[in-house]
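lol ok so funny story. i was supposed to be doing the assay writeup but got distracted and ended up predicting the structure for this chain instead. priorities right. anyway since i did it might as well share w the group, maybe its usefull for someone
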Amino acid sequence: MKVNDEYIVNIEKLSNLGTGIARIDSQVVFVENACPEDKLKIKITKVNKNFSNAKVIEIITPSPYRIKPFCPMQNICGSCQLQFIDYDYQLALKKQIVEDVMRTIGHIDTPVNNPVPSPEIKEFRHKIQCPVSQTKVSKKILAGYYKPQSHEIINIKYCPIQPEICDKIIDFIRQKAFEYKISGYNENKHSGELRHIVIRYSAYNGKCLVTLVVNSSKLFEKYKTFALSLFNKFENVSGVCINFNNKKTNVILGGKTECVCGEDFIEEKILDKIFKVGADTFFQINPKSAENIFKYVKDEISKSDNPIVLDAYAGIAAFGIVVSDVCKEVVSVEENENSIKKACEALKINNIQNVELHAQDTTKYLKSIKKKFDITILDPPRKGCTIECLDETIEHTKEKIIYVSCNPATLARDLKHLCEKGCTIESIQSFDMFCHTFHIENVVVISVKKQ
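and the output, tada:
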């Protein structure tokens, strides 16, 4: 098998990264934009020792689950890998992905419940991070999303998975930045000014917080005047911030953000609780789907009688605050101090008295205390937990751990360790937070009682 070789293949299933899996002489081939039960003509794009990559050059017989994407840019934009697949079947495929990684990585045979669908499959994405560049000759500002496996920006003027107001804000910035002598960023040369546009949209009140990420360490006057023009143009915009990131990095936000007009947050509502979400605050991108998760976790906790709960990797203490009215006490631990400040504000807004906040690393906090909790909520980043953190969690938890994860692979790895330490998995429930992608959120309820 060589690069540019062509073959006719049948797609067997989907990989955990959303590519179709075919086999040629027993060798696995990962095919982009392929659906199970497709019969395709493909071209090999890369050959490795144990597998190859390929792209579709002709759909010979389409899968019965293949549909026309509702976005005309789906084929060239890297954001919605699965939008050409019927939504109900997307959910079935995601369940299969979770089952596969649980079995192969975690050696776990606990049944995976059918995913809870997203309440909305359009305009659900309420955090937008839009890279910016500029053409060489015309100096036209480009803003959109990257092509798959590249840093080439697709200039997208309409994105159906984000609120329409966000398209309008991005287009205004695209059209007007030049008038204020603000240039687009050149990643290769580390030159130019505007690197990213970050928008937070509130499902609660329709307000937007706009953050302009600039390749600078100084707040120039033109940034202020441009931000003010944006603020005045859109009544939905509650504030405009400037974030300073002059490092050669793929990290979007720098360490310093300054609000130049309006407020530096939006308000979001989860169940009956109000939160302030800032430019650099972690908060779920699909709030309505997140509500399903929060309700599920709250219902699980309410099965215990007035428990004491640890909310670990707490962010702005969203879980701790939402479940607080079915708990005797909640301790929320988060190492990001800005998130803890937002959590303090949320406690005041919601008049909550039984949540205690700690700006500290979860493992260090657990090592420093002797207290035990009835239930621990773990909601770590994609990389999951360290073994040390998992061991400390077991040591400090009496009844159960509720593990919330956006990465099935690291979740399966961590569950394997918990089971080896005597824990028992009670249930695995998937939630579709990231429609039209291969990503899937999972909530696992784990008993820490010995078998």
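The chain has a mean pLDDT of 94. The two ends are 50 Å apart (CA to CA).
back to the writeup now i swear
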